[in-house]
């Protein structure tokens, strides 16, 4: 019997060692600095720019993840995976200069140089300078209040293991892929800054949970006629009656802020991309 107890003791010791390695390694990933310079952005003050910034904040899903008025919210919580809780925007932004806030949005790098996680900097990095200035102008109008969420991001054992293995990657994105002005080709632009936060252009994919399937963007959009695509973007209802899950939520909370002309331009661009991919 003695060898059984010794074996169990060894297994328990290995489990503790593994837990220590996962915690220490994931903590290093969370704290690791990223040398990305601050972003100098002109922030307008006029009411029209602020209103447009609020509209854009819907389209790029700031007001979906951080709640409609930026008060923050708990999106997901599981003892093993952790808690995803985008913070109140006003409270967070009050600690940042405009340049630091621009770097956070565009490059996914916090004030202390560490990376964000979950926030889609790979798509937000495409926001043009003038549109980023408008979004920051809207953010500066927000005020902390009693409605602000108190929930905080937290990573459980499985979440920390995913961090350590890179399955849940840091969102720090050093590359500068933005333009100074919103381009005339708004179809390509909005595909980059909004749709490709979740979708790949020509390939199927999955969300960060590794389970939720995400169809290739271009062929999926090409399968819709204009009226059906407009309905999808405004209501989250597809051509069938099935629940589209996250897409339905995002469409109602954010994509409904697109103008009719922007939706037409977006579909035209994605149909052209689908035709390229079919060759």
Please outline the helices and strands:
Elements: H1 2-31, H2 47-59, H3 62-65, E1 76-78, E2 82-84, H4 89-93, H5 98-107, H6 121-124, H7 129-139, E3 154-155, H8 157-165, H9 186-193, E4 205-206, E5 213-214, H10 217-222, H11 226-235, H12 246-253, H13 260-278
Antiparallel strand pairs: 1-2, 2-3, 4-5
Helix pairs in contact: 1-8, 2-7, 9-13, 11-13
Domain Cytochrome c: 48-143, 182-274
Organism: Sphingomonas kyeonggiensis
Protein name: Cytochrome c553
Rounded Rg: 21 Å
Major β-sheet profile: 3 strands, antiparallel
The CATH architecture name of the largest domain reads Orthogonal Bundle
Shape: globular
Binned, the helix content reads 40-55%
> In the residues, how many domains can be counted?
2
What percentage of the residues does DSSP assign to strands (E)? under 5%
Class from secondary-structure proportions: mainly alpha
Average pLDDT confidence is: 89
**CATH class term of the largest domain:** Mainly Alpha
Query: Gap between N and C termini, in Å?
Result: 68 Å
H-E order: HHHEEHHHHEHHEEHHHH
Unreliably modeled segments: none
How many runs of DSSP E, i.e. beta strands? 5
The CATH topology name of the largest domain reads Cytochrome Bc1 Complex, Chain D, domain 2
Q: Supply the number of helical segments.
A: 13
- Biggest sheet, spatial arrangement of strands: 1-2-3
Protein name: Cytochrome c553
InterPro entries: Cyt_c-like_dom (IPR009056), Cyt_c-like_dom_sf (IPR036909), Cytochrome_c550/c551-like (IPR051811)
Domain Cytochrome c: 48-143, 182-274
Keywords: Electron transport, Heme, Iron, Metal-binding, Transport
